[in-house]
């Protein structure tokens, strides 16, 4: 597969590739937004967000933080409906989503498989076409999966006059659609290479994951004149500890086990919307609440059976 062949070589160091991915995502996010704290562990929550603090902003992870499940899976369902790929590929997307929902965290191997699948599917298609389809897919599969609690946190920042950005490994085109629909400032996401408006099946740098997210936030903050010590970040995954550690006001949202332990050590605040419980601080236990596979996966399997 062409995409795999491009992703495999390591001509750059991992750090250099992370920086490239982060800077590319920041550039795409700022361009998009032009077109169209927080709570430290011991700080009284009522003081956040700080009204009128334009040097502060908020950065939200997407999957399992803002939205239930994996955005790339829901996007894949929409593309399948539009005959971009075959039934066996849908089954693979469904399995990846099932794992994501049950494990409650990102598995690097499954994430890699999902990215490779997406790159091969969109290769040769026009960027404008995928952007238009993304709008439809949001209405069909994603809108009803937004966590109301996380949405309220983002709105609090907006109401305080601060910018709010999604930061995700999902394709930036998907992330921008979701950000726009939620009324957010913009989105940082994985940037797929395109030439003359057509996807090549390659990435710019690497997926916006782990350290690359931190680099994207750092680059955007520098370009926007933000003070990261006054900014907030929200995520469910230990993979985002580099991003959370950059800001003065990190939140663990629906955290996986590793992030929960890390946040407890550092006295970060926590919100867990999987069970309807809200803990003011990580020191207050929150139930895992992973539950059974539901929603998107069940619908995908049902669709598979009907088409057989």
Molecular structure report:
This protein has 308 residues and is an alpha/beta fold. Helices cover 49% and strands 13% of the residues. It has 12 helices and 8 strands. The chain has helices at residues 2-7, 14-35, 71-81, 87-103, 108-122, 127-142, 148-159, 172-181, 211-224, 241-246, 257-266, 296-307; strands at 57-60, 163-171, 186-190, 192-195, 198-203, 232-235, 249-253, 269-271. Strands 3-2-1-6-7-8 form a 6-stranded parallel beta sheet, sandwiched between helices. Strands 4-5 form a two-stranded antiparallel ribbon. β4 (192-195) and β5 (198-203) form a beta hairpin.
Q: Quick gist of this model?
A:
The chain has 308 residues and is an alpha/beta fold. It has helices at residues 2-7, 14-35, 71-81, 87-103, 108-122, 127-142, 148-159, 172-181, 211-224, 241-246, 257-266, 296-307; strands at 57-60, 163-171, 186-190, 192-195, 198-203, 232-235, 249-253, 269-271.
List keywords for this structure.
alpha/beta, disordered N terminus, two-stranded antiparallel sheet
Secondary-structure blueprint of this entry?
Blueprint: H1 2-7, H2 14-35, E1 57-60, H3 71-81, H4 87-103, H5 108-122, H6 127-142, H7 148-159, E2 163-171, H8 172-181, E3 186-190, E4 192-195, E5 198-203, H9 211-224, E6 232-235, H10 241-246, E7 249-253, H11 257-266, E8 269-271, H12 296-307
Parallel strand pairs: 1-2, 1-6, 2-3, 6-7, 7-8
Antiparallel strand pairs: 4-5
